[in-house]
Amino acid sequence: MFGKRTLGIHVRDEKNTSDSVPQVIPIPAKVTIPMSMHVGAPCTPVVKVGQEVKVGEPIGTPGGLGAPIHASVSGKVTAIQDLLMPNGSTVPAVVITSDGKQTVWEGVKPPEVHDLASFTEAVKQSGLVGLGGAGFPTWAKLTTEADTLLVNGGECEPYCTTGCRTMLDSTDDLIQGAKLVKQYTGVKKVIIAIEDSAPKALEKMQQVVRDIPDFEVKRLPARYPQGAEKMQIFNTTGRVVPDGKLPKDVGVVVMNVASVAFISEYIRTGMPLVTKAVTIDGPAVKEPKNVIAPVGMAIGEIIEAAGGCKEEPAKVIYGGPMMGGAVASLDFPMLKQNNAFLAFDEKTARLPEPTACIRCGRCVDACPMSLMPVDISKAYELKDAQGRMDLHVNLCMECGICTYVCPAKRGLAFTNRLAKGFLREQQSKNQEVKKG
Fold first, then answer.
1. What does the alpha-carbon distance between residue 343 and residue 246 come to, in Å, rounded to a whole number?
2. What is the H or E stretch that residue 435 is in?
3. Which of 25, 147, 262, 375 has the highest CB neighbour count under 10 A?
């Protein structure tokens, strides 16, 4: 799987906001909070229209794998409506009209933690999901099967800098959060992985962990997709996560730096995840900066509160430009796992016209998972499910490198996504046939 290709490729950093300390922006008139901001089934709303709620009050509970959802503003529930999500699913969303007071719910208090079970429950009740973008419920990662905690500070996507700011501005919480995970899960070692494109964060963290037993900072080359967990596990521990397996299966727990810092903050204050730091940047943005906004605030309002755009953006992306998705409407709300909103002008947003594949092999050479994007594309065109299985398309992490390096400007990463979806459908049909 890995080998000489592990280091990935160089992309333009565009870290324009690395020196921007996140600023708290004004509370909006209303927030729209989706009941799905995590891997797993959507939460069930536990509030009713007309009900008064306060900051930190539970408004959605999960039925299985998931994380509770809390009110990010105080005020009145004015609607519970369907919301179309970026993945095409429709989920309930709770609309809260703010009273401007930001009154904190009486139930917000530091949790009592004394063992792994109570620690895991506390992390679950905090509503924490992976803040690097994946949205996997953090409580489900906590296990005694691992021997290493890998704190992911590899912010390899262009523009995004909130991870860097966490290491610089919330250093104490980051270290304390890592200590708590180590204490209750029993991991033997903590590795903090940082790319050398964040020299200030790297230097600060190296100084901080110098005298902490079993803590280590690993400097990684600034090459995309260094922040991908399977890549980072290999580059820091030498272990390979097999297809269909999770990091814990090779003894590693991976958490984003912001997630680890939040654990400490929650154990200390009891305030669940109701705000998020995000990077506002891109060629159309007037003044790139990092801001802190309530979960559920409209993306367009966040951008305006951060200073707005120089011109009408032709495209706005949530996340980084390599793996992020285009926003269908600026009215769409910010999710827990969002870490950036990037606004692009017409010239930058315009996609080049794809041409015929010239069989140059650049996508093959660049793929960090040693896949064959050209052959996967051909198998998808032929609707050859077995061919896609033989080509291990499910190993694709949709990093976008194949599209990035393609001289013919073909959307190979998108085709890989479609191929993975088609393969899942075929496997599901085959299982139904066997049952029948």
1. 34
2. helix 412-435
3. 262
Q: Strand order in 215-220's β-sheet? A: 215-220, 189-195, 148-153, 252-256
Strand 90-98 relative to strand 75-84, pairing = antiparallel
CA distances from 373 to 228, 232, 361, 377, 414 (A): 18, 22, 9, 6, 10
Can you tell me the mean pLDDT for 57-86?
Answer: 95
**In sequence order, what DSSP letters do the residues of 193-234 get, joined into one string?**
EEETT-HHHHHHHHHHHTTSTTEEEEEE-S-BTTTSHHHHHH
CA atoms within 13 A on the CB side of 412: 33
DSSP state at residue 431: H
Question: Alpha helices of 353-411 — where are they, by DSSP H?
Answer: 362-366, 373-381, 385-390, 401-405
Question: Looking at the chain, how many residues does it have?
Answer: 436
Please tell me the distance from the alpha carbon of residue 322 to that of residue 398, in angstroms, as a whole number. 9
Evaluate whether 162 touches 342 at the Cβ level (below 8 Å): no
pLDDT digits (tens, 9 = 90+) for 55-68: 999 999 998 888 99
Residue 141's Cα: distance from chain center in Å?
15
337 closest CA partner among 288, 245, 273: 273
- Long-range contacts, 111-117 (Cβ 8 Å, 24+): 111/266, 111/267, 111/270, 113/180, 113/184, 113/267, 115/184, 116/142, 116/144, 116/184, 116/185, 116/186
What's this model's pTM, rounded to 2 decimal places? Answer: 0.92
